[in-house]
């Protein structure tokens, strides 16, 4: 540990390594000799205390992620600009349902739950009409969740309150924040534990089927796409993207003799 630079310690990112160097901590051994109170003050609270205990030989029961890994778990965002402005509520509902479904999948992949949902729709910066051009609603969930159906329900309710008939919307999105680790979330006092287990099993089966047969094979009706061959009214404009020559049948190169 005396020969290990502090910046090479697992869990010390670039910013923390710079801070430690300014405090005179240059090796892993010097860091291990600090107190837990010191680690909480200079290394991000509980995460810093856990890192210090690991250096002192105490197993904390889980791996300590890097500073960058911790930042990636703070929020999950899905947002898109539409290829053309949308005026119909139903079109925007399908778009936001798709975004919420993808966000829920990401939550389950990283074993997280969200306790805050932000929904926004935007008419564009230069759209005519009164301000604001972007309308946002933040929903605090009664219980943190990764259940797609729950997130779809909250997203739909928020959109109903934000949408204005006759307006042309160019962008929409959702943000999942206040992320908690599965098994550590705050539960309701009178919640139905059996129902929660059933919903968790259902989401696991949905993810399994989509992994086996392809993304989007099984989805909620609220996020159903347009009929086959019909462009999504909310999809982005991707006609200039580079063809997938090696992974998509329709993009394979043809060579004429």
Question: What does it look like?
Answer:
- The chain is an alpha+beta fold and about 260 residues long.
- It has two domains: about 5-70, DNA polymerase, domain 1, CATH 1.10.150; about 75-225, Dna Ligase, domain 1 (2-Layer Sandwich).
- The protein has helices spanning about 15-20, 30, 35-40, 45-55, 65-70, 90-110, 150-160, 195-215; strands at about 75-85, 110-120, 135-145, 170-180.
- Strands 1-4-2-3 form a four-stranded antiparallel beta sheet, covered by helices on one side.
- Helix 3 (about 35-40) crosses helix 4 and helix 6 (about 90-110) runs antiparallel to helix 7 (about 150-160).
- The longest helix is centred in the middle third of the chain and has 21 residues, at about 90-110.
Which tags fit this structure?
Dna Ligase, domain 1, 8 helices, globular, 2 domains, DNA polymerase, domain 1, 257 residues, alpha+beta, single chain, 4 strands, four-stranded antiparallel sheet
Secondary structure blueprint with pairings:
Elements: H1 14-22, H2 28-32, H3 36-42, H4 46-55, H5 67-72, E1 75-86, H6 89-109, E2 112-122, E3 134-145, H7 148-162, E4 169-181, H8 193-213
Antiparallel strand pairs: 1-4, 2-3, 2-4
Q: Helix tally?
A: 8
- Shape, principal axes of CA atoms: globular
Q: How many beta-strand elements?
A: 4
Amino-to-carboxy terminus distance: 66 Å
Share of helix, binned: 25-40%
Strand order of the largest sheet: 1-4-2-3
Backbone structural class: alpha+beta
**Going by CATH, what is the homologous superfamily of the largest domain?**
DNA polymerase, Y-family, little finger domain
**Major sheet summary line:** 4 strands, antiparallel
User: What's the CATH topology label of the largest domain?
Assistant: Dna Ligase, domain 1
Query: How many structural domains does the protein architecture include?
Result: 2
Provide the CATH architecture of the largest domain: 2-Layer Sandwich
- The stretches of 5 or more residues where confidence is low (pLDDT under 50) are 62-72
Mean pLDDT: 80
CATH class of the largest domain: Alpha Beta
Order of helices and strands: HHHHHEHEEHEH
Radius of gyration: 23 Å
Query: In percent, how much strand structure appears in the residues?
Result: 15-25%
